[in-house]
Amino acid sequence: MARDLDKEIDALLPxxxxxxxxxxxxGDKDRHGYSIMQDVAERTGGQVRMSPGTLYGSIKRMLxxxxxEELTSGAAGADERRRFYKTTKFGRRVAAAEADRLSAxxxxxRESGLVPRRS
Amino acid sequence: xxxxxMAERLYRLLLRCYPGEFRxxxxxxxxxxxxxxxxxxxxxxMAAVLRLWWQLLVDSIVRAPGEHLDVLRQDVRYALRSLRRxxxxxxxxxxxxxxxxxxxxxxxxxxxxxxxxxxxxxNADRLVRIWERNDGLNVESFAVSVPNYVSWRERLRTxxxxxxxxxxxxxxxxxxPIRVRSVNIGTAYFGMVGAKPVVGRTFLASDEAPGAxxxxxxRDSLWxxxxxxxxxxxxxxxxIAGQTHTIVGVILSSSVPLEAEFYMPLQxxxxxxxxxxxxxxxxxxxxxxxxxxxGKQEIEAIARQLETEFPASNKGWGITMQTVxxxxxxxxxxxxxxVILGAVGCVLLIACANVANLMLARAAARKRExxxxxxxxxxxxxxxxxxxxxxxxLALLGGGVGILIAYxxxxxxxxxxPSSLPRxxxxxVSAPVLLFSLAVCLLTGLAFAVLPALASSGSGxxxxxxxxxxxxxxxxxxxxxxxxxxxxxxxxxxxxxxxLLVQSVxxxxxxxxxxxxxxxxxxMMGLGADRSGKPGAAWDFYQQLLSRIASSPGIExxxxxSGAPFGGGNTGMPINAVGDALIGSNSLxxxxxxxxxxxxxxxxxxxxxxxxxxxxxxxxxxxxxxxxAEMAKRIWGDADPIGRQIKAGPNxxxxxxxxxxxxxxLDLSLSPAPTMYLPTSQYLWPNMTVxxxxxxxxxxPAVMRSALRGLDPQLALFNVRQMEELVVxxxxxxxxxxxxxxxxxxxxxxxxxVGIYGVLAYLVSQRTQxxxxxxxxxxxxxxxxxxxxxxxxxxxxxxxxxxxxxxxGAARWVGSMLFEIRARxxxxxxxxxxxxxxxxxxxxxxxxxxATRVNPLAALRAE
Lengths: 119, 863
Known about the structure:
Chain A is mainly alpha-helical. Helix content of chain A is 60%, strand content 8%. In chain A, helix 2 (17-28) crosses helix 3 and helix 2 (17-28) packs across helix 5. In chain B, the strands form three sheets. Chain B has a six-stranded mixed barrel with strand order 4-5-10-7-9-8. In chain B, strands 15-16-21-18-20-19 form a six-stranded mixed β-barrel. In chain B, strands 14-22-13-23 form a four-stranded antiparallel β-sheet. The interface between A and B is medium-sized, with 18 and 23 residues.
């Protein structure tokens, strides 16, 4: 069973950058769509500004893949009209696997001298 | 606020690019996110707002189609899954469609290659064929006289013309002597058709000047087979009839409409040409911007001038002009092909109706599933689209198999095609054919899925849920019955057409030929210039040859003619009667042939009066003629023609010494024309046909060759043929029409039987309970049988009536393909209707009988 889950995770890697951004945004708390867009923009210093199409196209696929889920009632103190999303356990594991993959890649880049080592 | 609304309205418009399901799910959220983002970006500045709009635009151009594809992928996956769950339905539908699309692809590959493909010649749209015509003599398109051609060429402003004389020559060069088809051709010809030389050059205008060096151009096929594709062939001398020609170029086969291997310039010495001698062929090239009509009017005007200038030779002679396309692919051929395409199209329609029926039955059976899905929120348009997608998936699967069938069957079919069918060698499943098939697949997919799609979402949700598994709406059943009746109608039309064509072929085969083609072998030969220049010497040679052949073991008779029946080509001239005659001073257009004394015995053409030509040196046959009964009858009625005379233009006066039976020389469907026979002791052509009757036909060619070799090893026989084959070939096109339409009609009858069976079997399964109740209430099995048989017959009856009406309507197109039978022949229509009705009875009987086996108790308990 565990092996099947690993296979499922591997099948989703490498993760699309938009998916990873959304998972990171949902890492600390449940958010609605625009809140995700804002968080991504803030964390990237305005470099990544998702469009509604990119955001909801990604959300649709991530829901289908089981990376995130929609909250049935709005999160505490939130706007009733909006739909909120949270990461699933599976989503967290995929995010972790993607982070491992990227960090291994970074280590390799440093070891080969392509990227300067951290002082 | 108003500005925000304006922007939102614009964004809503952009959101329309997304699929409906996506909008149902996310439109509201996206609008909210858009509103927030816009108000944030406004605070940042104009550049941020512009960047937002740019992103939204890219979204609707790039992302939205992606979402559509996603939905399509899901639908296709869903369709494949649901087809896998219903394998019997899937295989039946795919096989039905494969037959329909396969047959259509195969036939369209022929129609495309023969009748639709543009001609491969440059300027093909401006090229025309020109003939002379004489309405008084009832000849519509006749060979051209060389002096007339020269006059046209001098006077025409709207087009260029080039004429040619065809023949065959024995070519002597590096290898053994070889017989090839040759033409002497106007030098402008190659430029007019845009012919491309592979090596060297084509002709120059100076090549046809009297006294110019003798040059020749060869076809690439001869270049490969005889000269081994040697590029140094340019400059090679070849000897033709003792004269040396120098090869100046090799021409690409596909760029020249004329199928000769050896081309020489047509050098014209007007002093030696007779204006009344019609021997040449001609084409014209309309100048750019000149219409067909303008060109035709000009050359007709010139023909009228020539009529006044040369009344003795040109009185009554006008022009027939045709586009080269019409000349190569005759209108009748195209019409026949389109009739066949129509027939096979009907088969496809029937196949579509069958698949639509199957899908309707499936939709009815799945009504509950569909209603359930709608109840839990599936959008109606999504359900409709899924049924349409299922239709398209079926169509593409069936079409794919069908194209494979066509791919394998087209090479087989090519062997059947009559040799007379133009451009048949290029028949192939080519790119345009594949495009056609793809379009057919998509159209059929839509055609048979539309009704089920509408039916699956049409009726009320609650009703369907309440109706339970039985639930079939009256509307769905009605459309299935209409489809079944339409199938019967189409099958009836096809069967009537097929029956007419088959009878037509049988009439053709029973036609009285006037001679016995069995055991006859024909071959062509020519004598060298040394002999053919001296008539006496040539006839002496042929007499020796014929007696050598005739005295060989196994040979019954040997004869000589200027042309064997069905050998292609014809010769004719206008003649006048001398003295009292039914035709008075009018001319009679008469076919003529040169024949040796034994010709009639060899062909078994009966002598009705008088005598054959004499077997001796022929001095008593000078100025004598044998005529066919038809000619004698037209000129002198029932009076004895022996001893009477006719005048054959400048050839002088001839006396009739014999009357023989009528012969069909050209085509089975043409009644025998007035024909006269001239003695070979007086007239010979450079090329003659040897005719041998031998009970063991297979030996004849060897005997003929060995006799010829014994007399002159330099001479060769060519075009060796069995007369029966020639006769069979002349009916090849009608036979092909009949067998193809017959095959399609059988397929159509079978498919429509499946259609009726399907509808009735479905009705029986739907009404099992009702039958149970009827039987529980005392209805006997015969009554139940009658009930369903009557329903089947009612369906078939409606279809048959529509089919009869359709056949009467289609008569216009089929009529021209028929021989000695009317397109509205009542017996044929009645017989075909009876046949379809019989098939319908059988198709109805099987499910009706099943209805009688319903066990009332079990049926009622099932509720």
